[in-house]
Design a protein that fits this description.
This protein is mostly helical. About 65% of the residues lie in helices and about 0% in strands. The chain is globular.
Length: about 210
């Protein structure tokens, strides 16, 4: 079990959501997922970083149903297989399974699962869902050094893809963000991250598509 994920925090979240018991089995299941050896970026460290950002008072103040946002963060990368295309759907189903079995109200479960599914295409029609997405994407607007490490870790997760195919695919993914009017849907995140994210993305695309 990963010691880097906060068990007490998860227990408190579980209670706040109305889950029966302490949720320890679910916590251990999530820890096992985020500790899978094929992961390099989508690990407990990423979840911890997202939770840390959510704890920023300016970010917390934006939340309507804070516990649901936090639950979505815990579950959003629970299933991560770089050879699959349905990771978000499977992660959402895990959330539905775990939370539903614990007696969490169905409307709460449905919202959490919706936020998890929204991390696939980064489109959602609620403010709380947008907060989940913007927190998840905050890495794009970190310092050039942090972003470079992120890109290296993503490459490690796709080590089974040959260099040319990876470069083309990754440039396409990043290009979709660059083509959007805004990467972030919330003004606070635009102010903090938008400019740096676009610089990071442009630099990475240039490296991926330039002479090798």
């Amino acid at each position: 079990m990963s010691s880097s994920l906060p068990s007490v925090r998860f227990r408190d979240l579980w209670r706040a959501l109305g889950g029966s018991g302490h949720g320890h089995d679910v916590f251990e299941r999530l820890c096992a997922s985020y500790d899978e050896p094929h992961r390099a970026y989508h690990t407990a460290r990423h979840i911890g970083a997202c939770l840390g950002l959510l704890d920023d008072p300016a970010v917390t103040a934006l939340a309507t149903r804070l516990h649901e946002i936090e639950a979505a963060i815990w579950f959003h990368d629970a299933v991560y297989d770089t050879r699959a295309i349905d990771n978000e759907e499977r992660s959402a189903r895990m959330a539905e399974e775990c939370l539903g079995a614990a007696g969490v109200p169905s409307d709460v479960v449905a919202r959490i699962a919706t936020y998890v599914r929204a991390t696939k295409d980064h489109v959602v029609d609620s403010a709380d869902g947008q907060l989940v997405i913007d927190v998840d994407l905050s890495i794009l607007g970190e310092s050039p050094e942090v972003f470079a490490t992120f890109e290296k870790e993503i490459r490690r997760e796709y080590s089974w893809v040959d260099a040319a195919a990876y470069a083309a695919g990754r440039a396409l993914v990043l290009g979709r963000f660059a083509e959007r009017p805004f990467i972030y849907g919330i003004a606070l995140f635009r102010d903090r991250y938008e400019s740096k994210a676009r610089e990071n993305i442009a630099r990475s695309i240039a490296a991926l598509t330039g002479p090798r």
